[in-house]
Every structure is written in structure tokens, then in C-alpha cells.
């Protein structure tokens, strides 16, 4: 009896320990699962990131550390209706401007873009050594266009990104378009039920006006969509040892002579302008004086003062 009671006392602690381990194992499974769930994003994207955010390893081409796999990541498309611009300046090796300039244009065309404008400048020897080109490329290819230019041959002088948010404008245009389209459809339904010629003419005029409004709003919406779908990239290239054009020779005496000549021409121009402006007045004044002289009788003298004859006779007497 004593042996059986001792055996039961030994079994009871063992059962309690086993139950505690089972409970801890059950409560630990969700935690382990949750930790695994957070560990996977951390390993793949550099930490817990929101959906749509760029992974931390995107700058390295999408390679996951320690896995050897390459993830296809689109980091160039912003949320909302955003118009994007970039102004990038690079210095290229001596004598490579023409080739690199053509490579930039070819790279933009390879991404589905096109050239908006371009300009080139020559150095002191008359050789093309610097210039810039403005490209329109798909917005989601903008980062790839800029980051893949030149490799190690290019020396970055500056890269400036900017953007314009068209989200509110897009929502407003969509609301205007929806309202105008509904108005037009209501007028068309009313037109189908109208039989009077005058009423039909009035409805057709109103429908034409509403359709014109729809076309205008649709055009604005298309323009905004084009500015959002295509980003603008201005790429400037300049050779590292670019020789600036030598300044033209000048001296203080020549500068003084040029300044004096310029001032003299300015004064003479103002004098001629004043003379020509007052010439009609001078002509009118001269003509008036000439007319007055012709109207005055020739050889006329002012009359002498009259003398009293009676006074003269009394004096003689």
C-alpha cells in the first residue's frame, strides 16, 4: 500500500510537467508562426514595409541577400496621378560626347520614349563637347533610364527629381465628365420623345453645347493622363576637360570708346526723334506767320495824330 502511494506521488509531478510543456508548446506555435511571417518580409525586403513600397534591395537590382534569386520590383510608378521630372547632369570622358549623346537618345528610345528637344555646344576648338537632351519616357522607366546611364564612365554632377500631383485635378475632371455625359444622355432621351420642330431644334442646340463641353473636359483629361504616363528627363552631358571658348580681347580704352560711341548714338537718336516729333508743329507755326504777313498791307504807316486848326489860328493872331 505504501509502495503504491509512493508511485502515485511520483507520477503526479511528471504528469504536471508534461501538461505544462504541452501548454507552452501550443501557445508558442502562433508566436513562432507570427515571427516567421515577419521574418520573411524582413529577409526579402529589408523589414516590415507597406504594400507597394520599394524593397531595400531594389537599388542592387532586386537581388535578395544570400538567396541568389532576382526579384522583379517596379519602383518607378508612384501612387496617384503624379507628373514626374528629372534633371540630371553628367561629365563624360574626353572625346566621348558625341557617342554618349547618341547613346542617351538610343536608351530613351529603347524604353519607349522620344526626344522633345536637344542642344549642343562647341568648345574653344569648335568641337562638340557639351549639350543636353530632353526625353519623354514611360513614368515607370524613368529610374531605369537615369540609373543605367554610362556606368562607371559617367561622373555625376547632379540629379534633381521633381513632381506635380494631378490627383485632385484628375478627380475633378472625371466628375465634370460624368456630369456632362449624364446631362447629354438625358437630353438625348428627351429628344427621342419630342415631336415639335421648335423643341427638337432647341434640344439639338443644347446637346451640341453639352457635347462641346464633354470634348473640352475629355481633352484636358487626356492631356493630364499623357503628362502622368510619360515622365520628362533632361540629361546634360559635358566632357570633363572641356575647354571654354577664349574671351574676346578687350582693353579699358576700347571699352571707353565703345561706351562713348553707344552713348553718342543714343543721344543723336533721341535728338532726331524730338526733331521729327516737333516738325509738324514748326511747319504749322511757320505757315501761320506767313499768312499773317501776306494779310498785312504793304507800305502802310500808322496815321499821324490830328492837330487842332483853331488853336493854330488863334496863336497866329
Overall average residue pLDDT: 72
Computed CA radius of gyration, to the nearest angstrom = 47 Å
Q: How many H/I helices?
A: 7
Structural class: alpha+beta
Strand percentage: 15-25%
N- to C-terminal distance: 204 Å
> How are the strands of the largest sheet arranged?
2-3-5-1-4
Write the H/E string, N to C.
HEHEEHEHHEHH
Percent of residues in helices: 55-70%
State the assembly state of the protein chains: single chain
Give the overall shape, derived from the CA principal axes. Answer: flat
Ranges with pLDDT <50 over ≥5 residues? Answer: 1-78, 309-317
Question: What is the CATH domain class of the domain at 82-165?
Answer: Alpha Beta
CATH level-two architecture of the domain at 82-165: 2-Layer Sandwich
Could you list some keywords that capture this structure?
about 325 residues, Alpha-Beta Plaits, five-stranded mixed sheet, 7 helices, disordered N terminus
Give an overview in words.
This protein is α+β, with helices and mostly antiparallel strands and 317 residues long. Among the domains are: 82-165, Alpha-Beta Plaits, CATH 3.30.70; 167-228. Helix content is 56%, strand content 16%. The protein contains seven helices and five strands; from the N terminus they run H-E-H-E-E-H-E-H-H-E-H-H. It has a five-stranded mixed sheet with strand order 2-3-5-1-4. Strand 2 (114-122) and strand 3 form a beta hairpin. Helix 4 (167-193) runs antiparallel to helix 5 (197-229). The protein is flat and about 95 Å long.
Amino acid at each position: 500500500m505504501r509502495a503504491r502511494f509512493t508511485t502515485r506521488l511520483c507520477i503526479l509531478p511528471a504528469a504536471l510537467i508534461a501538461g505544462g510543456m504541452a501548454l507552452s508548446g501550443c501557445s508558442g506555435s502562433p508566436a513562432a508562426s507570427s515571427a516567421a511571417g515577419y521574418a520573411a518580409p524582413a529577409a526579402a525586403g529589408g523589414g516590415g514595409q507597406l504594400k507597394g513600397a520599394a524593397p531595400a534591395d531594389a537599388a542592387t537590382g532586386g537581388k535578395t541577400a544570400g538567396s541568389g534569386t532576382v526579384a522583379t520590383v517596379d519602383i518607378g510608378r508612384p501612387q496617384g496621378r503624379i507628373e514626374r521630372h528629372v534633371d540630371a547632369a553628367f561629365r563624360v570622358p574626353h572625346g566621348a560626347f558625341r557617342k554618349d549623346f547618341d547613346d542617351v537618345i538610343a536608351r530613351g528610345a529603347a524604353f519607349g520614349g522620344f526626344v522633345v528637344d536637344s542642344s549642343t555646344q562647341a568648345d574653344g576648338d569648335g568641337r562638340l563637347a557639351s549639350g543636353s537632351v530632353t526625353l519623354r519616357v514611360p513614368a515607370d522607366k524613368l529610374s531605369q533610364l537615369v540609373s543605367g546611364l554610362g556606368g562607371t564612365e559617367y561622373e555625376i554632377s547632379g540629379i534633381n527629381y521633381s513632381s506635380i500631383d494631378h490627383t485632385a485635378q484628375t478627380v475633378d475632371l472625371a466628375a465634370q465628365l460624368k456630369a456632362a455625359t449624364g446631362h447629354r444622355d438625358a437630353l438625348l432621351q428627351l429628344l427621342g420623345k419630342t415631336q415639335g420642330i421648335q423643341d427638337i431644334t432647341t434640344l439639338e442646340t443644347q446637346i451640341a453645347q453639352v457635347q462641346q463641353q464633354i470634348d473640352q473636359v475629355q481633352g484636358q483629361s487626356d492631356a493630364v493622363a499623357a503628362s502622368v504616363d510619360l515622365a520628362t528627363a533632361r540629361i546634360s552631358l559635358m566632357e570633363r576637360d572641356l575647354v571654354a571658348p577664349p574671351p574676346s580681347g578687350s582693353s579699358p580704352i576700347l571699352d571707353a570708346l565703345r561706351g562713348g560711341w553707344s552713348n553718342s548714338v543714343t543721344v543723336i537718336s533721341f535728338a532726331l526723334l524730338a526733331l521729327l516729333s516737333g516738325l509738324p508743329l514748326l511747319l504749322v507755326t511757320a505757315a501761320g506767320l506767313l499768312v499773317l504777313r501776306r494779310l498785312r498791307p504793304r507800305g502802310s504807316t500808322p496815321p499821324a495824330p490830328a492837330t487842332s486848326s483853331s488853336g493854330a489860328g488863334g496863336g497866329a493872331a
